[in-house]
Specification:
The complex is a heterotrimer of chains A (348), B (332) and C (284). Chain A is an alpha/beta fold and 348 residues long. In chain A, 63% of the residues lie in helices and 9% in strands. Chain A is elongated. Chain B has 332 residues and is of the alpha/beta class. In chain B, α2 runs antiparallel to α6, α6 packs antiparallel against α8 and α11 runs antiparallel to α12. Chain B is elongated. Chain C is globular and about 70 Å long. The two termini of chain C are 31 Å apart. In chain C, α7 packs across α9. In chain C, β11 and β12 form a beta hairpin. The mean pLDDT of chain C is 88. Helices cover 32% and strands 29% of the residues of chain C. Chain C is an alpha/beta fold and 284 residues long. Classes of the chains: A alpha/beta (348), B alpha/beta (332), C alpha/beta (284).
């Protein structure tokens, strides 16, 4: 059995290379690493942009905010100007400051789609700004405690690496396994395998192994070029291997039921998008509806982030690995049943 | 000539309806639009979440509700466990007389300052400033328009992919050779495929737009936009069909195409207006600007300019591909 | 009317010619057979003649107009039947013909009538993917004559067909000839060539070995052949001798003298035997 596995593995490696998948993957790996390192900015604002009109006597707000690095083009010099600007940029809020520091009135021009809670939070932060400018102490009776030491915020570009790893690198397995299956169906080489002593296990393991290897190469290059050597590659490898096999088995299970790859393809898009939804939660961490946390990729993408940008969180990896192992076992059982019943038997 | 094109379009339509592909193809973007529509309200109303210890006292809890969603826990330990979960949630517990804001340490920039500002405001006796609020009364957040624009981009691409896979099928079955020994010209071929793309793209875009914004859009402009975009869809289809020898290598190519196709407009969102020219050579960028004009109000470049640039850049790409197609398809 | 002059073709670009110095002419209304084993260069020549392959060196002239200068209207005048069926598998047999007909600017045949002619009327509304190999072959043939072509290129039109269907196809080819159609027939089946062709060209390893009518070839190379069957040990062996050839004659005499002869038949040599004689190899 091992001999057969090695033999099949070699064959599958050749198929993947001949299909130019390796070339594509290598190319993409360097392109993505280049984009992350050099093109995507480190700081990107995805929340609404605040625009200001400082009508206070001393223009202290404008001075202070510019001192803190706010772009000068976010300041306007009349109510009307600001009003117009907010109307034009639907992803903005207008803030007018009037009066003196001791008696400030803020007028907030909102689009109208913001929730009241968000506006209240904005009020609170502005009020906090007044407090700071007046050099007042915080109100008594509260403090802030961090469960772990505070970590540096992750730059926007580097923060995308886990997204790329989980939603691009690993998801690739889903398509490649399907491609391999349909190629074998089309060429009829699967029929030759049916009448050989080769079994379901070698068939699945060999393909999963090749794809996982490809994923490791793909992800390895990206991580190495963007994060260097200073991270826990062992844990990262374990996570990539387990997620890659999971998605590969999912692809296998699905592709067995389709006649040709074009039909499969559109069903695949739906599944890929569903698995990709947690990327939104990753970018907006406050957005986490309960069903989202059930999608397998949800905990993985945050796990990968913890490995790549360690904040000292402990004990998160083991439970994640257990969950992934369990999911793998279930999908493995289902897909080997499907392969045995549908793929390795004649007739559709 | 017209007769030949019409005949070819008819054959394409019959061919497409024989396949489940057409079904999946129609279903995929529609499903996507429905899903997005379901999601969007949650995403638009993202509020802060406070994990609060029951012992924090009813008054503080009541005041906190003005700033976000509250999750109540029985013990301080449970609050801390909640804070440890992957999403960004801050906890509030009471230690003796003092309130403690519990954070994990890996939250985004200014997260602690925001929580502190809120607690400060709740606990301070007198407000430090007065506030007035003016609402512009915009009914929808820009996210909806943005998502709609992206969905429309993908609808157009899917229409192009159908053409690409049709072409691959013709190459694989060698039916293309039968076309090559008929009087069909390469421009007629491209044009016929363009008509198919336009029909598919129109149906899909209108469906997508209806699901996303209902009647609240300028459908005449959308039709014009799709008409101008169909050249790009044809270009994508021809590129796919020209490069791939079989469906399998087709998938590999789609993989790369899709990435490039979506990354360009997505990237343009994060690049300041001064550097938008970097994207000017790409038709999908112009298409995105065009759709944003329809769904997000006027942009730095208007609808008509963007549509014309979409068409022009797409046609340049098609012209660049014609020699390759002549060779691979052996059409004249 | 069709003239092919000094045709060369190199797929590799390294001077390895798949076809070299091929020259022949075809008269209007003639059935011209192109006979040779697989890989001899038959399809290459046909593909250059139909414009599927680019002309590299030499000339292909239709009424002294080069294939290179042909506009797409030229294709209204020709019909091509491919060796490997290339159909829209999701379309029915009827639809395959109907939509193909729509590509032409000239009067086309009624698809139903054509399907009837090749015995596919019952399968007209079945998808091509459900057709058997032979049915697909017939559909491809029917497609090739849908525009009433003046010149018909047929690549192995009867391969894989049962004898009665093959004979139907042969009848159609003959009737096409009667209406003045010129036929270029590529095959490795010498019986078809013998039966249908006015003239045949033998092609081997990219070169033409002989061109003439089957009758003349036989007269020239094989009229006086004798087939002898004799016993060699426990097995029966057969051999053909061309008695005009001196070496053959000596061998024949030796054989008669030394072996136990079972049968002797004087016979007309088949085209295949002549092909072997001329090229040193068989047709398969």
């Amino acid at each position: 059995m091992l001999k057969r596995f090695v033999n099949l593995f070699n064959q599958d490696v050749k198929v993947v290379i001949r299909n130019k998948f390796l070339t594509v993957v290598l190319l993409l790996a360097f392109v993505i690493a280049g984009l992350i390192n050099f093109v995507i900015p480190e700081d990107v604002k995805i929340t609404p942009k605040e625009l200001f009109f400082d009508n206070t006597t001393e223009r202290i707000w404008e001075k202070e905010l510019i001192k803190r690095g706010m772009e000068i083009d976010r300041f306007y010099y009349s109510r009307d100007e600001l009003h117009k600007a907010v109307q034009e940029d639907k992803n903005s809020l207008g803030i007018i400051a009037e009066g003196s520091l001791e008696d400030t009135t803020f007028t907030i021009i909102r689009q109208g789609t913001e929730t009241q809670e968000i506006i209240n939070v904005l009020d609170a932060t502005l009020e906090n700004g007044v407090r700071e400018l007046r050099n007042l102490e915080n109100a008594e009776g509260f403090g802030v405690e961090f469960l772990r030491s505070r970590s540096e915020p992750i730059p926007f570009n580097k923060n995308l690496i886990p997204v790329v790893l989980v939603f691009e690198v690993v998801m690739l397995g889903f398509l490649i396994i399907a491609v391999m299956i349909f190629q074998e169906k089309q060429e009829g080489s699967i029929r030759a395998y049916r009448v050989s002593p080769g079994g379901v296990l070698e068939y699945i393991f060999s393909k999963a192994a090749v794809i996982t290897l490809l994923g490791l190469v793909y992800g390895g290059i990206i991580v190495l070029l963007t994060r260097g050597f200073g991270i826990d590659y062992l844990s990262l490898t374990i996570l990539i291997v387990l997620t890659s096999t999971l998605i590969t088995l999912m692809g296998l299970l699905l592709s067995v039921f389709f006649r040709n790859i074009s039909e499969f393809f559109f069903a695949a898009i739906a599944i890929l998008i569903a698995s990709g939804i947690p990327a939104i939660s990753y970018m907006y961490p406050s957005f986490a509806p309960p069903f989202m946390t059930w999608i397998p990729s949800y905990p993985v993408v945050f796990g990968v982030r913890e490995i790549l940008f360690s904040t000292g969180k402990e004990g998160f990896l083991a439970p994640l690995i257990w969950v992934l192992l369990l999911e793998n076992a279930v999908l493995f059982a289902a897909s080997s049943w499907a392969v045995r019943r549908k793929l390795l038997k004649e007739g559709r | 000539m017209l007769k030949r094109i019409l005949n070819f379009v008819k054959a394409d339509i019959v061919n497409a309806t024989r396949d489940n592909i057409i079904l999946y193809m129609m279903v995929a973007p529609v499903l996507l639009a429905i899903l997005t529509r379901l999601f969007l309200p949650t995403l638009q109303n993202v509020n802060l979440t406070f994990a609060v210890d029951n012992h924090a006292g009813q008054e503080v809890i009541n005041q906190l509700t003005a700033y976000g969603n509250i999750e109540l826990y029985d013990t301080a330990l449970q609050v801390k466990e909640r804070v440890e979960r992957p999403d960004d949630v801050g906890g509030v517990i009471k230690d003796g007389e003092k309130y403690i804001i519990v954070l994990e340490g890996n939250e985004g920039k200014d997260f602690d300052a925001i929580y502190a500002s809120i607690m400060d405001r709740i606990l301070r006796d007198r407000p430090l400033a007065q506030f007035e609020h003016i609402s512009l009364g915009v009914p929808e957040s820009p996210l909806k328009g943005l998502f709609t624009s992206f969905l429309l981009l993908s609808a157009v691409m899917i229409a192009g992919l159908i053409v690409g896979f049709n072409l691959i099928d013709e190459k694989e079955t060698k039916a293309i050779q039968a076309l090559a020994v008929s009087p069909l010209k390469v421009f007629e071929y491209i044009f016929a495929r363009g008509v198919l793309v336009l029909m598919m793209a129109l149906i899909l875009s209108v469906l997508t737009s209806l699901i996303m914004v209902g009647a609240d859009a300028d459908y005449a402009k959308l039709a014009v936009g799709v008409l101008f975009s169909s050249a790009l869809a044809v270009a994508l289809g021809l590129l796919l069909g020209g490069l791939a020898d079989n469906q399998i290598s087709g998938i590999a190519i789609v993989k790369v195409l899709f990435l490039v196709y979506t990354l360009i407009p997505m990237g343009s969102l994060f690049v300041s207006e001064a550097f938008q020219w970097v994207f000017y050579p790409f038709p999908n960028y112009w298409m995105f600007v065009m759709f944003k004009n329809i769904y997000l109000g006027s942009q730095h470049i208007g609808f008509w300019a963007a549509s014309i640039f979409t068409l022009i850049t797409s046609i340049i790409y098609i012209l660049l591909m014609v020699p390759v197609l002549r060779r691979t398809l052996k059409l004249r | 009317m069709i003239s092919v002059k000094n045709l060369y073709h190199d797929y590799t670009g390294k001077g390895q010619y798949a076809v070299s110095d091929v020259t022949f002419t075809i008269e209007k209304g003639e059935i011209f057979g192109f006979l040779g084993p697989s890989g001899a260069g038959k399809s290459t020549v046909q593909n250059i003649m139909t414009g599927l392959l680019e002309l590299q060196k030499g000339a292909v002239l239709y009424d002294s107009q080069s294939i290179k200068d042909m506009k797409s209207e030229f294709f209204n005048r020709i019909g091509v039947s491919f060796e490997h069926p290339n159909l829209y598998s999701k379309l029915t047999g009827y639809e395959n013909l109907k939509y193909y007909a729509g590509l032409f600017d000239v009067q086309t045949e009624d698809p139903v009538k054509l399907l009837g002619m090749v015995g596919l009327e019952d399968a007209a509304n079945k998808r091509a993917s459900e057709y058997s190999k032979g049915m697909k072959q017939r559909l491809v043939f029917a497609r090739s004559i849908i525009n009433n072509p003046e010149i018909l290129f047929l690549d192995e039109p009867t391969s894989g067909l049962d004898p009665s269907t093959a004979s139907t196809i042969k009848d159609i080819i003959v009737s096409k000839k009667k209406t003045g159609c010129t036929v270029f027939l590529t095959t490795h089946n010498m019986f078809i060539a013998d039966e249908l062709c006015d003239r045949v060209a033998f092609i081997n390893e990219g070169r033409i070995a002989a061109i003439d009518s089957p009758r003349n070839l036989k007269l020239q190379y094989g009229q006086k052949s004798v087939k002898v069957e004799y016993k060699e040990g426990d097995s029966i062996t057969g051999e053909v001798f061309f008695l005009e050839n001196e070496k053959d004659r000596t061998e024949f005499n030796n054989l008669i003298a030394s072996r136990k002869i079972l049968t002797i038949h004087s016979q007309e040599a088949t085209l295949e035997q002549i092909f072997i004689k001329l090229t040193g190899r068989g047709l398969v």
